[in-house]
Write a structure and sequence with these properties.
Strand order of the largest sheet: 1-3-2
Number of helices: 5
Radius of gyration: 14 Å
Distance between the termini: 31 Å
Structural class: alpha+beta
């Protein structure tokens, strides 16, 4: 995990993850939870060779948005985000995380 600070991130509030980098906005201080959240996305991207992560992410978002018609709810229901949010408080999550752990969150309600 490599951290870079930049002045502007399009479409994001504070960060963007592009394996193996986490780009934070200059002046932003991430919490440990947010670091673990971003690190989860790095693991997911590495498992899917980056490009497949984004393809699945976008397709899943569009499908979920078509049912919910709410951007925030669609975003929060993406399997990658569910895994990251549900485990960001667990300090030892990466010691027990199995590869492709995000798959079990796809059909979860």
């Amino acid at each position: 995990m490599k951290i870079k600070y930049i002045k502007y991130i399009p479409f994001q509030k504070q960060d963007i993850v592009l394996c193996p980098y986490i780009f934070w906005l200059k002046g932003f201080t991430p919490t440990d939870k947010l670091r673990r959240h971003a690190q989860t996305h790095i693991k997911q991207q590495a498992e899917l060779l980056i490009i497949f992560f984004f393809i699945i992410y976008i397709i899943e978002f569009l499908i979920k948005f078509s049912f919910k018609w709410n951007i925030e709810k669609a975003y929060r229901s993406i399997s990658f985000e569910r895994e990251a949010y549900r485990n960001q408080a667990k300090k030892t999550y990466f010691e027990t995380r199995k590869k492709f752990a995000w798959i079990k969150y796809i059909y979860e309600k």
